[in-house]
Queue: 2 jobs
Job 1
Amino acid sequence: MNQRIPVTELTSDFKSRAHDALADPQLRANFRTAMDSLMRKRADAFSDEAEREGLRELGNLIRARSLSNLPDLLEQLEARLTANGIKVHWAETTAQANEIVHGIIEARNGRQVVKGKSMVSEEMEMNDYLADRDIECLESDMGEYIVQLDHEKPSHIIMPAIHKNARQVSQLFNEKLGEPVSEDVDELIQTGRRILRRKFLEADVGVSGVNFAIAETGTLLLVENEGNGRMSTTAPPVHIAVTGIEKVVSNLRDVVPLLSLLTRSALGQPITTYVNMISGPRKPDELDGPEEVHLVLLDNGRTGAFADAQLRQTLNCIRCGACMNHCPVYTRVGGHTYGEVYPGPIGKIVTPHMVGLDRVPDHPSASSLCGACGEVCPVKIPIPELLQRLRQENVQSPQHEPKAVKGAGSKYSRKERMIWRSWQWLNTQPALYRLFLWGATRFRGLAPKRVGPWTENHSAPVPARRSLHDLARDHLSTNAVGDPRT
Amino acid sequence: MSELFYDAAPNATRIAPARAPERAYPGKPEDVSLFGTCVVDLFFPEAGLDAIRLLEQQGIRVHFPQQQSCCGQPAWTSGYRDEARAVALAQLNLLDDGRPVVVPSGSCAGMFRHHYRELFADEPDNLRRAEALAARTFELTEFLLKVCQVKLVDRGQPYKIALHTSCTARREMNTHLHARELLAQLDNVQRVDHDHESECCGFGGTFSVRMPDISGAMVLDKTAALRGSGAAEAISADAGCLMNINGALEKQQHGFRGRHLASFLWERCGGAE
């Protein structure tokens, strides 16, 4: 695995990837089964509706308070972490973040890195960056390990290999590791664990993400279920945590409700198997723990979202994945279709700030605005409202300044604007609208048999013989029932 | 280092609106306006007429302002705010007479109840009128059940139906249980569940033509679930969903169809005094 993992360059667009995914029955079945199970688990974990809604409101308020205070909290966090012996680094771009991480590893002459799960490191494409510099990065989360082994990217932010079933994982282990074929999940996990255990001891550096960075105490909180997070952050002599600037909260009291929301929304768990609270490197009288601990705080477009009061709400996100578990679009096309690090509803609203709307022009449109995501979001991000806002930004002229989101205007179309202008004209001139109704009903036999993409899935719509305008006028004027009191 | 973040306005942070208290309903009015919606107007006019009849059966005088067109939702959800605003303003001016407005569709009612506020957020006078319109807008099932407090008398034969509830009724209007309650009043009608009942049918307005592959997969699953439910017919209180579901069923050459709740209720209970 000491060679660079080839990055799949995405040459296709969202729609063609969706088309292919929809035609893959195995993928469809894997996602549907997994998402159904996750929805059930969440529902069971929040069986008391009043408690759930109260907790979601509290979670939203805590996140909003943290964000309203973000600059001060970050300064406090830096001061407290530094006092605790954790080195704090700031990165505006993913390139800077990679340079910082590489610098820390180089200073220790490190060659082997073991990683706990971190979506921010996926944003950075850290594995590839380090592989290019002859540093081996091994993913230790079982799902991440599986996708790394298959040269893939995660398809879900909590369950990276959810697109594969046990049989597919077994085939992969057989092909890449020479393991005997087995569909027993426990056996597969033991195989992965056996290989990873050795790596924890050999690694020079451990890398992890952060779920909550607590400003008051200078604590990095990390939740996980496999123990790999604890191993990655304690066994190697150096621990580097990477996280986004929005993950900071004031104090440990704030964490309690957020943690409950996170674990119940994600996997329906009352609490994860491991809750790691990292507050510094090994002290002179301690027997274990890393000699150095670093935190890299990454911006990568988050300040752009922060600058807009409405879009700032994207930074509430605590990365539970409930929105994708409940999304009828994600369930059908899977995470890889989105082509970016963060898939699903949350991906559609955070990714534009990171890479620009022009790189993901179809993302805001890929939603029926059914509202399932907003309904389950533990911190009440109004995802449908934000998708609608991004659609507005994306149909503006690309020349329009200032831009609320970088790359806005990527769906600008003079032709479509003209269509909506005509629609506006029709619907604001009552006489014209009625003339249209008259024509459409009178000449209903001439209605086109093919109506663009609509008739790919539907028969052509045929107008009624008479419009409601007509029927209502006749009914209300000639029928005495129009006035029941007479 | 954190000077990066001082450019933004920290005090602008938004919090989620508090949970709306249960809506307080007025007594039954003498007059209402029916906002038919453009989809009903052209494709399901009998549902609009049946809605009028159901309201008249409750002793209400129904007005149908002939100047009405569309609520503006298609442009709004497509991101064309200015065009949506112009069409919304025409309806706002038309429906400004203080009469309660009844809408036989969750999504168009939701447009009046929730999104006109956003469209006119920067225009104090129009915003005030939009708030007033929101306060007296009712989805048909909500109006029948909560304002009229109907007691339906079922005159039909035993019948099984599946109910498809629109996402806007479910998640925006909070009227997702109203159609169920109305149907439960019909002694001879059995409502059967269908697979993934709370899932979207895939319509989503222009989503259905922008993303035909995804939308098509969704409506294929929805129609299969409805057909597999054992019901003789699907009922929905939203004509947008019905256009999607029925159009897909026709394309699939299945005889099974969906019907608007207003038409179903009128067929079962029409003529009762």
Job 2
Amino acid sequence: MPVTAVAAGESLNRSIVIGREDPGDCLLHVVMAADSHLDLSVIVLPGASSRVNLRVDMEGPGAEAYISGIYLCPGAEEVSIRTDVNHKVPHCVSRQLFKGIAGGTAKTDFYGKIVVAQDAQKTEAYQENHNLLISDSARMDTRPQLEIYADDVKCSHGATVGRLNEDEQFYMRSRGIPESEAMTLQMLSFISPVIGHIPDIQTRENVSRIAEQAIRSFREV
Amino acid sequence: MSESNILLKIEGLHARVEDKEILKGVDLTIRKGEIHAVMGPNGAGKSTLSAVLAGKPNFTVTEGAVTFMGKDLLKMTPEERSWAGIFLSFQYPVEIPGVTITSFMKTAVNARRQSEGKESLKAGEFLKLMKEKMAFVQMKPEFSKREVNVGFSGGEKKRNEIFQMAMLDPVLSILDETDSGLDVDALRIVANGVNALHTPEKSAIIITHYQRLLEYIVPDVVHVLKNGRIVRTAGKELVAEIEEKGYDSIN
């Protein structure tokens, strides 16, 4: 796996878009020095079956990482996301937010591991993975894994798999919003926290536009 | 009155939720310009009636017919009913996190225009309309940027319903327990809104347990719904009788 180093006090912002044209694996290993910042997002678009493997090692105190992702799978995609966040030293913060939508016969799997070493006191490590199932034939798995060896830390994880809320749908339809458009609004609002966080405005707008197109493709399924 | 004045005609309506029959033969005719109150004790079927008229899934009509402006209402989807001019003010307005009032209303207004073969409103025209209708229910400008009903107080939720009603300009408004959870000031804003939107071409069904709202919105016809049937229909004097004697004496 290629290693990317973020030097002390430096920042790295990166958004990776995996589309139909260049599916496949996305492997990334980031090593963070003291007081460095990382903002990493991965967007998996419809038609792309891929394996995403992100490893972040926090090797200097004061490092902060925000790792996020969206996977949109309306068809027969198979997407696997794996994250490994290793808190090796004290006073580092990591936040993960991954959101997926699956329709058709798509299969998705999220495996997120956080390891907090014994010396890594005052660690803050958070992980969220939320999934939206659009069809009965799709399958979504989520497996959060926390290994904490230090005793003075703040760590949490949340994992859900759910469906579109029917009360919201009826409310919107009763105002004249067609069912398919109501679903689109619901899916857009589901992923908006991930997109809203992308630091670079240009990237955020691009991703937002691409994601909206992708979400509209769920309609035909 | 001639048949052409009839806006809504409900005949022998039976409906159930899951396996439970709630409406057991409701007949109701509403003409243009009329305000009808449907009153009744809890569990009488008042909210089921409004849900069936708006087309809520999971409510199954087992018998009877509903005609709205000459069309078979029961064959229409909820969005088609909205486009035809039906509006339901929800007893419990739904929170939609992540969707702003502006984007919600823009989608709704333009979907309706599309159904009429009209072009979408220009951004400026839409904002002007929003501003006008927000002022109508005394909503502050930042209201448009808030997520639909998220973190709203009870009064704000109901004012938001009347705001949406003003935006969509319905022919038949159904207000389901709009007075519940409202303080006097909010009640007055809501009632003034409903009254101001009322014209000789438009009708309303006010569903309520109490007479409170009917002091502000005066009905032409009052029905008492009990155990899935309308057991009494009279003029507005019936409200006072209910207040005095309760629902037990009306059968």
